[in-house]
Specification:
Blueprint (H helix, E strand, L loop, with lengths): L5 E4 L3 E5 L5 E6 L2 E4 L4 E4 L3 H18 L6 E4 L4 E5 L2 E2 L2 E8 L3 H6 L6 E11 L8 E2 L1 H6 L5 H23 L3 E15 L2 E7 L7 E5 L9 H4 L5 H12 L13 E2 L2
Antiparallel strand pairs: 1-2, 2-3, 3-7, 4-5, 5-15, 6-7, 8-12, 9-10, 9-12, 10-11, 12-13, 12-14
Length: 253
């Protein structure tokens, strides 16, 4: 890994040059962050879990015709992905009121929404990833109207796929965040799902108990984050039984 050229490092992942043109190697770190990285910890094994879970979700999406950047998993922490031009927006789909929408609109957390709601946030850590409207997006040239229509369609297809998958293992998909990138096939541009899909980017609640199985465990000090992610992987049958259990988190000073 040391001999590869680093292309980008974020809060939870590192991107390296791939072995072939148009590819990247995505490495999943054990770092956990919240509140725009104001809260930090190292959770041993988190990167392994998110690598395997993101592989599982991306492979499933590819199989049902939702295009993603995922090519194949390389090892326990790395996957080969297609290089894309990331649109500077986070696309959030909400099925149940939780987090910021509850605070903004005064809706009790846990209230089912009348239909899935798609929101857009400008990707800028210094500004705290502010929520933006379609008018902002088009005015500032982040995406065209056709892009917007395609992004909403992709997001809702991901929602349908993930909701059904989670329901089958007793988990409620409360909301999730995705990123979308542009790729070119000759002169033809299309949009595909990029970044990752994991408990880092979803709110997942046990249907029977309401237990949180996502990064809110870390945000709200509700227990062991690794245990929550491991439970999601166990229910989905993602982690082979022979793999060692993920150990407890170590806080960074």
């Amino acid at each position: 890994m040391a001999r590869r050229k680093k292309v980008y490092e974020g809060k939870a992942k590192i991107l390296y040059e791939g072995p072939e043109p148009g590819t990247l190697v995505q490495y999943f770190k054990d770092d956990a962050t919240a509140f725009n990285a104001e809260k930090r910890a190292t959770v041993e094994g988190k990167g392994v879990l998110n690598n395997r879970l993101s592989e599982f979700f991306m492979t499933g999406l590819n199989s049902v015709g939702v295009p993603t950047h995922f090519i194949r998993r390389l090892n326990m922490r790395e996957q080969l992905i297609r290089a894309v031009e990331i649109i500077p927006l986070e696309v959030v789909v909400r099925n149940v009121a939780a987090g910021s929408i509850s605070k903004r609109l005064g809706i009790d957390e846990g209230t089912p929404l009348p239909r899935p709601i798609v929101e857009f946030y400008f990707k800028n850590d210094e500004l705290g990833d502010p929520m933006v409207s379609e008018e902002h997006i088009i005015a500032f040239g982040w995406a065209s109207q056709q892009d917007m229509d395609d992004m909403i369609s992709l997001a809702l297809r991901v929602n349908d796929f993930l909701s059904g998958l989670m329901l089958g293992v007793g988990i409620k998909l409360v909301d999730f965040k995705i990123e979308i990138g542009r790729v070119w096939d000759n002169d033809y541009m299309r949009l595909i799902i990029a970044d990752e899909i994991s408990p880092d980017s979803c709110r997942l609640w046990d249907i029977e108990t309401g237990q949180k199985l996502d990064k809110d465990v870390f945000r709200r000090d509700l227990g062991n984050l690794a245990d929550a992610y491991t439970e999601v992987a166990r229910r989905l049958g993602v982690m082979p039984q022979r793999e060692p259990p993920v150990t407890k988190p170590t806080l960074i000073n």
